[in-house]
Amino acid sequence: MIKWFLSVLVLIFLPLSAYAVTGEDIFKSKGCSGCHSKSFDSFAPSLSTISKSYYNKKEDLKAFLRGNKPGLIKGEPKTMKGFINLTKKLNDSELEALVTYLLSF
Ligand code: HEC
Questions:
Q1: Which mutation among 28, 46, 59, 80 tests ligand 1's pocket best, with the greatest number of atoms within 8 A of CB?
Q2: pLDDT at 20
Q3: 74 CB less than 6 Å from ligand 1?
Q4: pLDDT per position in the chain (105 positions), as tens?
Q5: How far apart are the first and last CA of the chain?
Q6: What residue ranges in the chain does DSSP mark as E strands?
Q7: Distance (Å, whole) CA 86 – CA 95
Q8: Domains observed in the chain
Q9: Fewer Cβ neighbours under 10 Å: the N or C end of the chain?
Q10: Are the beta carbons of 66 and 95 closer than 8 angstroms?
Q11: pTM above 0.85, yes or no
């Protein structure tokens, strides 16, 4: 009985732990891709502009997404405010993954 129970637990938790959330998953699931394109600057800066502006400034990007610092590109966020409310709730490893994704362009 206990063996059966343990194998059910393993079957449930193994796939969960094997699944690592990527920065791209977060970027898409939080709706960021609706405004930020990879290389085209619209009213929202593109990921390539973000990557260039935050080159070697990863901590500033994290502080912006935590709501602790104005942006380097546009200063005080207006449109982004609601989305910072989403990114400030990410845990450290999720934020790290998102920032690594944003800086990979
Ligand atoms: C509704 C459109 C929209 C969505 C969705 C959106 N953004 Fe933005 N983002 C903007 C705009 C516009 C700016 C320019 C600053 C401002 O006006 O807030 C910006 C600026 C930024 C910047 C640069 C900040 C600076 O000035 O240095 C980053 C980084 C960023 N967004 C990341 C994200 C992430 C991550 C998400 C998803 C959680 C996201 N954005 C979702 C519109 C959007």
A1: 80
A2: 76
A3: yes
A4: 677 766 765 666 655 555 678 999 999 999 999 999 999 999 999 999 999 999 999 999 999 999 999 999 999 999 999 999 999 999 999 999 999 999 999
A5: 52
A6: none
A7: 11
A8: 22-102 (1.10.760.10)
A9: N
A10: yes
A11: yes
- Amino acid letter for position 88: K
Whole-number pLDDT of residue 32: 98
Q: Output the residue whose Cα is nearest ligand 1's atom 39.
A: 32
> Which of 22, 35, 81 gets mutated to test ligand 1 (max ligand atoms within 8 A of its CB)?
35
Torsions phi, psi for 60 (to 5 deg): -65, -40
- Tokens 């994704």 correspond to what residue? 101
